[in-house]
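Protein in question passed on here:
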Amino acid sequence: MEAMKRLNGAKYECLLFDMDDTLYPMSTGINMACRKNIEEYMVDPLGIDESEVPRMCLELYKEYGTTMAGLKELGYEFDNDEFHAYVHGKLPYEFLRPDPLLRNLLLSMPQRKIIFTNADKVHAAKVLHRLGLEDCFEGVICFETLNPSPPSPSPSQPQQYSVVDDGIIIQEDQNGGNWRNPKVLCKPSVLAMEAAIQIANLHPNKTLFFDDSIRNIASAKSAGLCTVIVGSSSLVSGADYALSSIHNIKEAIPDIWENDLQGEGGGDTIIIQPPLTTLVEPVDVLA
């Protein structure tokens, strides 16, 4: 209860962090390695002409948020887990090193802290482990959170479908639940932002969203979130703050610590919502 009181009247109640190229710099080479793996997957097994892949990959990323989402939109059929295993399975994770400075900053923040990434849960777990940040976040909103696998059909229960206005198909299962199919829901879609807000039970105007993508910042602002562009020393459209490095948080946004009462329950962990599906202890996938 004391920990909860520490946030009463605070400017921010939750800090929502992108992961790749936000918690660590793009200079690690993870981003370029991931793009190379995606291009290889497009050639084999999808069979796309190699000469068309770089252009196509970039265009799909720009239009749909991720190349994977664009490929699905174009009608390419492949298993989501297989795709992620191929794209992330060969990444040079050894380039990521523990970041004690960032760890200490995160642990000193009294707010809830949640990861919001387009990546899958296996990749998220590996990155957080490599950075030494597994226990710094309440949970992870990832690909599987926004794109759950469909339930197994029951032979005795026909599947019921309805189409909503945004074109996403909702299937109702025999237990009254529903799931999204076939579109991939991901950033920078405002729908994805709104879904994350609902899943994590956030107050948008009391949530600070950190991301390296200008497009993600713009859509987060449209969803009502307060925003921080990471990796830029200048503000971009929709950004409330700009950080050249994630390590500059305390200097740039002292408001995060404004209601941290020294000596009065300091060090308490703020947990407002119980964890759900385990990802890597003590970080959980929010679903």
Observations:
- The chain is about 35% helix and 15% strand.
- Confidence is low (pLDDT under 50) at residues 1-5, 158-172, 261-282.
- The CA atoms of residues 46 and 78 lie 8 Å apart.
- The radius of gyration is 20 Å.
